[in-house]
Amino acid sequence: MDSDPIIEIEAMGARIRYPEDESPSVLEPTVRTMNDVGSLRLPDPEKDGRLPVWLNAVRILRDKVGTEFAVFANINGPFQAAAQLLGMIETAKSMRRSPELLYELLDLTTQTIVKFMKAEIKAGADAIILGDPMSSTSVISPQEFAKFSLPYIQKVVRQAGETPIILHICGNTTPIIDKMVETGARYLELDWSVDLSAVRIKYGNKVGLIGNVNPTLLLTGTADAVEESCRKAIAAAGLTGAYILGTGCELPKDTPHENLDRMIDAAEKYGKYT
Predict the structure, then answer these.
(1) What is the pLDDT of residues 193-237, one digit of tens each?
(2) Residue 186: other Cβ atoms inside 10 A
(3) 244 forms bridges with which residues in the sheet?
(4) SS (H, E, C) 141-164
(5) For residues 271 and 139, what is the distance between their CA atoms, to the nearest angstrom?
């Protein structure tokens, strides 16, 4: 169950734009001062914004699939939510000049996300995917990740209890793989630029892996190229288990169904254990 990356902050009070044929996005930064943080609300997942619609979708999925399929539901990372509320330029300034504001905001976004996550689990989610693109090393440094993102992801993971957390951070996360493992997430969903084999060799089956077929390949490549990429990913990360074949990141619009079908076929062809 997924929709868009602003579901929580909309319920907190952020102003959102709704394009005709794209996902919703932030209209403008909501937070500029500490007083602005105080004006945000800690939303009720059953009442505020579109959170109740999302939870109802999880319940419908749970009811429809029973125990035949697992139901995954998404949340956004605390740093991602805070950066969206502040705006990325102000977030960068805050990390260096006024971290107190960012810490205050991170406390609130963490509370919001934990509350929503628990509601998703209660609604019937078997696992939670925590997406945090803003924590990518394409955006912030490994040192900033350790200071402003890692501790808050750890808080969310701890609050999930026995429900598995799948952590997704976009881009080449090789510089922070060790920290991603430290979050306690059960699985890491890794983008296409990460060496799956190197991660598997270093950590064995201590942490599960998901990924990392290139979404651009799925959009523009041939079905044969997709199959070969899937084969290599399974060989790199899946031969001892604890691996789920998947894309490195979100699929682009208009990805050919033929390529997705070939990906499923490749999982069945190369992913069997003897």
Answers:
(1) 999 999 999 999 999 999 999 999 999 999 999 999 999 999 999
(2) 18
(3) 210
(4) CHHHHHHHCHHHHHHHHHHCCCCC
(5) 34
What are 49's two structure tokens?
């914004």
**Residue 187 β-bridge partners:** 166, 208
3-state secondary structure of 250: coil
Q: What is the tens place of the pLDDT at every residue in 81-97? A: 999 999 999 999 999 98
What tokens does 73 get? 């539901």
Overall pTM > 0.85: yes
Cα distance between residue 242 and residue 24, in whole Å? 34
In whole angstroms, give the CA distance from residue 92 to residue 244: 34
Number of CB atoms found within 10 A of residue 274's CB: 2
Pure H helices in the chain: 7-12, 34-39, 51-65, 78-86, 88-97, 99-123, 142-148, 150-159, 177-182, 196-203, 215-220, 223-237, 257-270
Closest CA to 217 of 200, 201, 231, 205: 231
Q: In terms of DSSP bridges, do strands 208-213 and 243-247 run parallel, antiparallel, or are they unpaired?
A: parallel
In the sheet with 165-168, reading across from the earlier edge strand, the strands are: 72-76, 127-131, 165-168, 187-190, 208-213, 243-247
Helix (H, G, I), strand (E, B) or coil at 189: strand
